[in-house]
Amino acid sequence: MISFLALATLTLAAKVRLPHMIGDHMILQQLTEARLWGWAQPGRTVRVTTRFFGRDLTQTVKADAKGRWLIGVKTPQAGYRPYSVTFDDGNGAVTIKNVLVGEVWVCAGQSNMEMPVKGFGNCPTESYNDDVAESRDYKAIHYVKIPASMRMTPQEDAPCQWAEIGPKTVGDCSAAGYAFAQMVSKVLDIPVGLILANKGGTRVESWLDRDYLQTKTQEPLDSMAIVKQFGEEYHRPLLWGNGTFAPILNFTVKGILYYQGCSNVGDPAGRYTQRLKDLVEQWRRDFRLGQIPFYFVQIAPYWYGDNKGDWGPKLREQQFNASLQIPNSGLVCTDDLVYDYEREQIHPAQKRQVGRRLALQALNKTYGMKEFWCESPSFKSMTIEADTCYVRLQNLYDAINRYHDIEGFEVAGADKVFHKAKAWHYWKPGNDPRNESIAVTSEEVKQPLYLRYAFRNWGPGNLKNGALLPLFPFRTDKE
Questions:
Q1: Which of 135, 140, 154, 259 is nearest to 196 (CA)?
Q2: How confident is the model at residue 460 (pLDDT cuts 50, 70, 90)?
Q3: How many structural domains comprise the chain?
Q4: How far apart are CA 143 and CA 394, in angstroms?
Q5: Is 305 domain-assigned?
Q6: Residue 8 falls within a domain, yes or no?
Q7: What is the DSSP string of 28-96?
Q8: Mean pLDDT for the stretch of residues 82-93
């Protein structure tokens, strides 16, 4: 009885409790009301003290019947000055230190977003040593890794801690996310925070919530049924969103970076497009921050057991279609970011370029720096004369990277059997709509009807625009 009373007394006198995300070295979103939250005794008043504007500012919030509380604190313009924040419910103060104010981005998706600067086993990145050598120049980049875990219900907290970039910590940061943060931090001259909430091998359904899965899909939602249907745990629906993403939804962020899709290759036409669009709507709803930016990565070429198959590019096509339907979004093409020897490597080494292309999207669209060219070229229209297709592209930035030796095009006639084609830059004076186009022909197809570009599991093209960004794979034939 004495021990029980002692324990009860200690519980009643416990200090205010914070989620792990609210801790030393965290970065708060600038120029907003950043949300802070935690737990205290039900009905208890929590005092939150900041010194962002040169003086102590204390705000109060009362814990609800379940002991939860949440408060918004006004943040200043980004800068390198470290701050502290103190929380006190009368049972003892808790102070967190080295808090910076900057831009905060979520790094979501599967293993190509999770892939750290130091790489995976037998999956290296090509910039690891350079990143370690340069890491002291980027100590205003901080990150927090949410442990990948499965839960049947949404979690409010996860064991994690913020880390400041340095030689000993940079290796564990998302390689694509870190390259994004490097470029944004350098260009804007501000701190950048990364929230790594991802899991290798997950499908888009792994992150959708129960209500959506129950009403819009046939995914199993009973725990035993989930395990029975999906032997590979990373393919399981619902659970990863509940365990790995739900704990971050109170945090105030600028936007979301997303790299996922390999595990949805083979999905029926249109299904991935719709579910990704709906996932973005779900996350925006749950962050309660409006239509925050969503920049995502098209999956890279990979053999998928058959180099000549087209189920990989069909998923890339769904991603491209999603980019046209999701407001305030942008898609990064990675068709050129694989080496020939990586055709059977699902984790290509060139992650620095992926992150930089994501940064181009953000710098241009979110931060208004239109001087950065961020768009890959894409198909606009095609005309056919005799045995030649004339292809017009958009987002060229007034240039293509080559006049000759263009690879990746295929043409087909009425039989829809595609043959490798010769392509070259075509231009002539006058008002002809084909003045600036790509001419494509194949000796094996005398009456072409259909055109494809880089539309094989493994068959990257080499055509780029004036920003040296690769042409999105496409096809003109419709099933």
A1: 259
A2: confident
A3: 3
A4: 37
A5: yes
A6: no
A7: EESSSEEEEEEE-STT-EEEEEE-TTSS-EEEEEE--TTSEEEEEEE--S-EEEEEEEEEE-SS-EEEE
A8: 97
Q: Note whether 165 and 138 are within 8 A (CB).
A: yes
Q: Determine, yes or no, domain membership for 373.
A: no
Per-residue tokens: 382: 């095609």
Domain shared by 306 and 396, yes or no: no
Residues 390 and 447 in one domain: yes
pLDDT above 70 covers what percent of the chain?
96
Domain that residue 237 falls in: 102-366
Mean pLDDT (whole number) for 83-97:
97
Give the C-alpha separation, 345 to 259, whole Å.
Answer: 16
Quote the radius of gyration of the chain (alpha carbons, Å). Answer: 25
The CATH number assigned to the domain holding 72 equals 2.60.40.10
Would you give the distance in Å from CA 325 to the centre of its chain? Answer: 17
Which band of pLDDT confidence, cut at 50, 70 and 90, is reported for residue 152?
Answer: very high
Q: How far apart are CA 119 and CA 47, in angstroms?
A: 43
pLDDT interval class at 479 (50, 70, 90)? low
Please check the confidence at residue 10 and state whether its pLDDT lies above 60: no
Beta-carbon neighbour count of residue 42 at 10 Å?
13
String of DSSP letters for 366-383: IS--TTS--PPPEEEEEE
